[in-house]
Amino acid sequence: MALELRQQLKLAQQLVMTPQLQQAIKLLQLSRVELVETVQQELLENPFLEETQEERPVSQAEERAPRAEEADPFRQELVKNADWENYLGDFASTGKQAGGRDAEVPEEMTAFEARFSSSPTLEGHLSWQLRLSSATEKQLDIAEVIIGNLSPAGYLQATVENVAEMAGAGTAEVEETLHLLQRLDPVGIAARTPQECLLVQVEVLGYDRDPVLVELIRDHLEDLEKRRYKPLLRKYRLGMDDLKEYLDLIQTLDPMPGSRFGNEQPAYVSPDVYVYKSEDDFIILLNEDGLPHLQLSEFYKEGVKGTTDKEKDYVQEKMRSASWLIKSLYQRQRTLYKVVESIIKYQRGFFEEGVSRLRPLILKDIADDIGMHESTVSRITTNKYVATPHGIVELKYFFNSALALNDGTEVGSESVKALIKNLISEENPKEPLSDEKIGEILKEKLQVNIARRTVAKYRTAMGIPSSSKRKAVF
Hints:
β5 (385-388) and β6 form a beta hairpin. α1 runs parallel beside α18 (309-346), α10 crosses α11 (171-182) and α12 (194-205) packs antiparallel against α13 (211-219). The chain has helices at 19-29, 32-45, 60-64, 73-77, 81-84, 94-104, 112-116, 122-132, 137-147, 160-167, 171-182, 194-205, 211-219, 221-225, 230-236, 240-251, 300-304, 309-346, 348-353, 363-370, 374-380, 413-425, 435-446, 452-461, 467-470; strands spanning 49-52, 273-278, 281-286, 293-296, 385-388, 391-394, 402-404, 410-412. With 474 residues, the chain is an alpha+beta fold. Among the domains are: 122-261, RNA polymerase sigma-54 factor, core-binding domain (Arc Repressor Mutant, subunit A, Orthogonal Bundle), CATH 1.10.10.1330; 402-470, Orthogonal Bundle (Arc Repressor Mutant, subunit A), CATH 1.10.10. The protein contains 25 helices and eight strands. It starts with 18 loop residues before the first helix and ends with a helix.
């Protein structure tokens, strides 16, 4: 059978996501910080997008302006400037209220160097001390290799032999340099084991004259961690009070001396929404502080007139992009407002009394209430935070599974977690509540059907240790 090439025409229908729709979906799931960065980047790249300095009422001339250009098909495609200058006007925010107060606060007279100075690193901190010490050039070279092999916690991750090979020195020289380095600040740095780290600190503090303390750290750290105290009391002929003094002293030592020089920066949460209680109702304020107010450039006409077809296409593309960005931002804020409004409707008990009144809720409940798809609700609640009368929480926090009650109703899992945490905080340290006992109390107080393994799962999720590890022996 012969093979041949042939052309055919075929008609088919398929769903295609336009760039505008992709942009709108992307804006929905951005956090507030990411949104501000995206808008600022678009302001830099799009010459036909500009930021308004202040909100002002639309003049009559601006209202009549579109009517004079009805014959311009390109103009009809774009959104009028007057429609978007106050595109967040329907959704009040603290930005408007705080604007006047911000102007009254004088600028902090912070030195320029202080604003841009970087935090010290462990490598820099140790190198600075070594340069001021009596270390020789050879020791400085060896110390540089040691510092380069430290873990974030400050432990040496290479053997003495490996360091000696990399530095071209003998093992005795490496041990000597290591002894010098471990006694710099932070004390115990470059240790190879937790025992060595703590023993160096004990030596520097002058506590190494107590042989019992030294042996407890060197040989029995695991026993102390697992609270196997009785064999230690018999071995060293100590009383519980004496052992407690040793434990209190050991707990003042730092087992991870390099951790305070970590490179991780704290993440500060800025709420996307503020919810305030006013009498018997709740007021929703969208936080637009730092978010530029956008409008289409007034100079677009000059850019269109007298240009070539290629230039005109570029202008139209940029103007269309600017218009869609403004519309997408408006849609994002509108969706966020409606979702928060619906959450308050379902979780009013939480806003009134706190986490103990948190109800079971799923994405479909909110989606059906506001007439949107579940995926839209999922995106708009991702990386978004709301400031409530009971603290700042993520919007996803309000969606939790349900536990059945004996009367046929349901209670939210987050409410059960909060009650478990409260019970543990009020327990007797010498007789902590077991998971089974907590389950029995929950059945009595909430009439909730909860198994012991479910209590253990919730407790572990909250980072609370088991009853055996919570038990106080002193």
